[in-house]
Structure formats: C-alpha cells, structure tokens
Predict the structure of Class I SAM-dependent methyltransferase.
Amino acid sequence: MTLARVFEKVTNGEDVPVEFAAYDGSRAGDPDADVRIEIRTPYAVSYLVRSPGLLGLARAYVAGHIEVHGDMYTTLSRLSHTLRGLSVTDRLKVLASIVDDPLLRAAAATRMPPPSVEVRGAGRLRRHSKKRDAQAISHHYDVSNTFYAWVLGPSMAYTCALYPTERATLEEAQSAKFDLVARKLGLEPGMRLLDVGCGWGGMVVHAAREYGVKALGVTLSKQQAEWAQKTIAEQGLTALAEVRHLDYRDVPEAGFDAISSIGLTEHIGQANVPGYFQFLHRKLRPGGRLLNHCITRADNTQQSIRPDGFINRYVFPDGELEGPGFLLTQMNDQGFEIRHEENLREHYALTLRDWCRNLDEHWAEAVGEVGAETARVWRLYMAGCRLGFEQNMVQLHQILGVKLPVSQESGMPLRATWGV
C-alpha cells in the first residue's frame, strides 16, 4: 500500500474532497480537491504510530513532516468527523500497512522527538502557583507583539469580538465587544474599573477614552504590559488609564466600582474558581458589578481541556474550561447576584475566522518573526477552535453579577439598557 493511501485510510478520507500526496510520488483521494495533505517525509508515520489520537498528526504537522495545502479550516471541517475518532486501532492499521516497506518500517521504529515548541510536562502538577501561572501565560502571550499585531489587527484584542452583523469588520466587532462590557457594567465618568487579565489594554483604553473611567489593568505578560502602557501614553490617557505587569492576586487597591474579567477564567483552574470570585467580590464596593467573559465547555459534564492533548501541550499550558452552570453557581455562592448571562459562541467562530484570515495574509512574515513551528501551531489551533465553536464543542459566556449592598438594592435598570 502506498504512503498516501495509508494516510487516506487512517483518516477515512476516501469520501471527502481531500487529496493525499506523499514524498514517494504516491497519491490518493480526490485529485480535483482544493485541499491537499502532503506527507513530506517517512517520519510522519512515527508521530502517527507513537502519539495518541490527533496529537500524532498535530506533531507531524507542527514539525513540518506533513503539509496542508489549502485552507486549514476547510481541511479540518472536511475531516472533522473522522479525525475525532482516531484510536489505537487506527494506529495499528498504519503499522499493518507499512510492515512490508523497509523505509517506512524503519521510520516508524524511530522515536522522533516532539517539536521544540511543545511544553514539556504539560498538565502535570497543576498547582497554579503564581510562578507556574506566570510561566504558562508567558509561553502563550510573550510570543511577539509584532506577530500578535498581524493576527489580531489594530485592536490587539485577543478575546471574542461582538459582531453587530456578519459583515462587520474585526475592528468594529472588537470595539462593539468592549462597549457591550462597558454598558453592562454601567460605566460612567469618574468610576474606577479593574480589568484583570487585561491583555494589551483594549478594555482599559476603551473605558478611559469613551467613558472617562479611571481604569487599571493587570496582566502576567510583560510584553503585553509594555505595549499597553505605550498605547495609553500615545492616546494621552495616562491620567485615567494604567496597565501593570502584575498577578491579579497582588492588586493592592480595593473599592472598585466595576471589574471586567475578559478571558482570564480559562487560566486559573477549577479548584481556584471559588477563591477567584471571592477575591473579585472583596475588591468591589457594595453595589459594584463584575462582568466575567470566558470560554466554557458546552455543559458541566463535558470533558475540559485534556492535559495530554494538543491545546495543553502547545497553546494554553495548564488551561482548564468549566461548564457555564459551574461558573454561575460559584459566582453566586461567593456573594454575587446574577443579573444577566449570554452565550456568544457564534461570535467567537467569526472572530477566529478573521484571525485565521489575518494569519494567512501575513504567513511569510509570521514564519520569519516567530519561526515555522510556532506559526504552524497557531494556524492549526485557530482553525480547530473555529470549528469547535461552530460545532458547539466550546462556548463563550458573559456573566454579569452585582455585589449587593446591605440594602439589597442592585442599582440595575428594570430592563437591560445594553440591548440583547
């Protein structure tokens, strides 16, 4: 059996419009397809045989032993149902197919090292100490501000945007997201906002510039903090806005009128969620509001990020996703009255669509900036995540809560003023 035929078999790709081509000249699949998977070296077989499930294919792609010609999202969409079921049996099929080929047999017997960008020991001893959290955040966010600017666009917002229409631009959608958060929090001039896990300062800048709010953002990424402070100075907002390179647990100030947490909860670990909401509750004044915006599992029973999977090894070390019901319960149990909740998963799929397009448009520059392996990780992970949101494997929830005063008056309008 030819090598291209082996990969067609193992991905059950006979009936999908994908072509398989191999370095030995063999071809299989649909020759007219606009997507072609190229097996560039025999060592791709080693990754597939030795690594569990999809991790082997991901390692082979990141290391450059497999190439995808055509749109990555389209490729994953066409193969998603079959790829999701890759098992030990599938790897045994590969072994059975290569026993008669000395070169492939030797390649399969070679223990190839994981790509250099893989985090060693990912998912072990998940303690979420301040030091370990700082290392995990640095791995993902201190890649290159230039690289992120190409992918994220001028807003430098690395969280789900809000699309007023499907034709809205990424920048319009990110601005709409920050404004939605501001309106849910009821921001007004003179208020004090704490933005935990503030990234490159998008929410901090928006709140200060558009609402006259005195905003403090904190991030564990040194590169993000430096970028944000530079942006604040350039926009003449230093009297109102500040971003610190700091763990949110070390913020000394209290009595904030509002707190926004946009994309932080995914990093703190399930065991720490109660303490996280308890800490934010203490930082608010009575009557203050919290808006928690984060990726979740589809429900409380679905598995979180696998500690031995691709996302944990390459993208978000120590990341964990909780179910929306769990987060609502913990937020409520720590003293917040829940006032509003919504799922924006379709908006995240659109956001990822635009990020993927940006990366493709700057592919050569991105490879030159961060290296081929890192660029490949991003191409694969963002396309896969887009598919995950579309297929309801993951969701994006915003939960709004109020720290009630002794009077129990919420200070909320009788009907939502931000639109639904």
Notes: The chain has a mean pLDDT of 88.
